[in-house]
Amino acid sequence: MKPVLWRRLLALLGTAALVALLWLGAKKLQPASNWWGRGWGLPTNFAVHGDSADTIFWWIFWITSFVFVFVQVLLVWFAIKYREQPGRKAVFLHGHTRLEIVWTVIPAIIFAVLVLVSIRSWNEFRYGNETDKNPASILVIAEQFQWNVVYPGHDGELGQYLIYPKLTDKRWPKGSENFREVAGPAATRPSDSVDFVNAWVAANPLGQDLASPHAEDDDPQTPARAVIVPAERSVRIYLTSRDVIHDFFLPNFRVKLDAVPGMRGLIPFTIRKEAVSTQEFNLSDANFPVNMPIWLNQETASTDDNKNYKFTGNPSEYQIMEPHDKKHKTSLLRNMDDLNKAARKRVAARDGIQFANVKDDQLASVLPELKQDLITAGFTKLKVVVHPYEIVCEQLCGANHDTMRGDFYVLSQHDYELFINRYYVAPTTQPAVASTADTAPLK
Amino acid sequence: MAATPQTLIPQFHAGNDHAVHPEMSFLKKYIFSTDHKIIGIQFLLVGLFFLLVGGILALVIRWQLAWPSIRHVPAGTFHPLPFLANWLGWTDGEMPADFYNTVFTMHATLMIFFAIIPILVGVFGNYLIPLMIGAADMALPFMNGLAFWLSLIPGAIMMAGFFLPGGPPQAGWTSYPPLSFLIAGGSGALPSVPSFVAPNGLFEQLVSFLRIGSASAGWQGNWPATPLIMLFITSFCSFAYICTYYINLGSKIGAFALSVVLCGIGGLLVTKGIQFVAIDGQSCWFLSLTLLGFASLLGAVNYLTTVVKLRCPGMTMFRMPLSVWSLFITAILVLLATPVLASALVLNLLDHLRLTSFFIPSGWTFGGKIVTSPNGWSAGGGFPLLHQHLFWFYSHPAVYIMILPAMGMVSDIIAVFAR
């Protein structure tokens, strides 16, 4: 064959291979198959500000895609069209001022419009709910490799955190004045001061400012089982880190911010109603999602006058107790357990074996029994977290960075109020209990 | 009638037809050369070497993705990692997380700083600029060679990270501080002065004279023989390059002997001095990139001077080919951005070695413990975000440093070959 023919054949084969690759890739493209949108597109958006961000994203995506394809097609087409041919001579072009003005002005206008739209969208997101009088404030403190959360309690205000004593401090921070019966880190022998400070940090891991009036009823959870926020109410997540730089990313809420040690970031956003993670199920329902965490709250308990329902501190410790066994009250179900886990615990306790060694086929027999017991205890309906969202750490934060994920639950406003106020006792006839700030917990 | 473009007629060789070319020695011509083409080829060879290393690391990353760890796959579908697990002795058959971090950190670093930038800027800048603007060579030929030889020392330091205890850095190619100044990617321990390591085996003992400290002093550097020899050879060569042009004695043998002695002393001093600073993978990373930035500054100054001063008659700025324009702009970016990166890296290196608190916030704890320097104190009061700002002051222009030369070439090649 002539060399020219070879070249043409190769060009054809190359083009065919490119088209085949594109076609195969396009076949892989599929719409989101899950409720949270884990397909090839964006994850489903559940934040109020997310729509404008997504719109800008898609505009930029299609504009750049168009320009990219257009330029690449021209590049290839011109290379073929103006290839060397007998009798063709090179032409000297010095440029075309009008054309250059056109291809400079058009992108400039596009960029200007995008900038204006972006500024508007950003301002709405960042400052839109600044005037909101009653935001749900939550402090998230990142740490290798877990998320710690502080809920503000009934007063709705967060205290100060991550205030640790320094080696050179003459006095301990307020609220722990007499820690270990010395005046402060600098008052000890220099060789001991590091140990003293470390002991202080161990007793107050989040560095809570004990003197702050708002810190009293705060509810710190280290680590948190999940970050819990209300829907349809402006949420203000304050973000910081205890050790290295982490990043708090909620793909479904178009929210992402670095957690920088020594700084406190703010993420203000509002979540739509349809994002609520929980759904009520009848225990007798055959479709009861046995693998999803169950969300207990006071309302559930009110079906049985709170007798069989107990609150102790951490939300994972709310539990439904066995109603009939008055002497040895055992737990039927703990908050955020799923039914499978509760059944597994039950088998492990009954047969005296390790929790992890319980076989799956053993669960099938116990599950109906467990359900029946729960119904007997007065719980016909339970709220299940069917849509747990994902928190991802988007900043390399150490060896186990890949394990730094978290759950994010969205509750209805009503449920969130119950959750936040679960320790709150309304001052009725009794005078308020004296402040415990001076006595707890560092002694 | 338009004036004949007289200025387009090549005039550069007029009068130079009978230029005297004294025969050069092989060493001067091909090894310690100041010729822009030879230096370009040297950059190409070194860049391709690092491209190979970085490419192998990329394969290791893919290897992990093909056989993920047990916690990343559904129960019952775990398959142990073939070959690598046996060679590297991972008994549970999965790639350790810190090893993975190491691999992608070094992959990114080598590819960006030691492959892409040297090949696109170093190779094409050196090779093409004088040819395309009609200059005989670069404006500062000796400095051009120096830029090449000085960029070998950082290469040796960077590769030394693979051999040091604790392994290469794990903090990503961005090396954000609170993570990067902890040794071995955040195990909580802080680096300390080199402790005593007894040289193990004849080979290790033979190169003991290159280590800092000694058995009698009670402590010795922790560098194994391989990186020591790499570092010594590269620093020896850098001095040899200088000696080639600056040691001029009456006799060639005398000059050669004096050069070898001077290079030996210089190489020894550099090898020993660097061990005081580069004590683990991360400090190797900081030091290496700081020095590499120095070398690329020399190159950038050279490109700018050449383009501004050595264009042949008729080659006005706006008649320059787009490739040269892109390299010209790249050189400006390198000149403006690299010093900022160097400052960030030096601050981070000081934090890493001595906890100097440039990037450590006040009252900072790690793993529930207050972090103190080797002297037992802790200052704090720094600002971790500052490193991000300084780093991206370099790294945002760096993406254009990487892409502009390629864009310039595309503009030229398509335009020239389309008729």
What tags apply to this protein structure?
heterodimer, A: 443 residues, alpha+beta, five-stranded mixed beta sheet, 8 helices, 33% helix, extended, disordered C terminus, B: 419 residues, mainly alpha, two-stranded antiparallel sheet, 12 helices, disordered N terminus
Summarize the structure.
The complex is a heterodimer of chains A (443) and B (419). With 443 residues, chain A is of the alpha+beta class. Chain A is built from eight helices and 16 strands.
Word description of this protein:
- The complex is a heterodimer of chains A (443) and B (419).
- Chain A is of the alpha+beta class.
- Chain A has helices at 3-28, 50-81, 97-127, 190-203, 298-301, 339-351, 360-376, 413-420, and strands at 136-143, 146-151, 219-221, 227-230, 234-241, 246-250, 255-259, 265-270, 278-282, 294-295, 309-310, 319-321, 331-334, 381-385, 389-393, 405-411.
- Chain A contains 8 helices and 16 strands.
- In chain A, the strands form 4 sheets. Chain A has a 5-stranded mixed sheet with strand order 3-2-1-5-8.
- In chain A, strand 6 (246-250) and strand 7 form a beta hairpin.
- The relative contact order of chain A is 0.12.
- Chain B has 419 residues and is mainly α.
- Chain B has helices at 26-31, 36-66, 84-88, 97-133, 141-160, 177-180, 202-206, 225-246, 252-277, 281-309, 322-354, 384-417, and strands spanning 213-214, 219-220, 365-366, 369-370.
- The longest helix of chain B is centred in the first third of the chain and has 37 residues, at 97-133.
- The interface between A and B is large, with 46 and 42 residues.
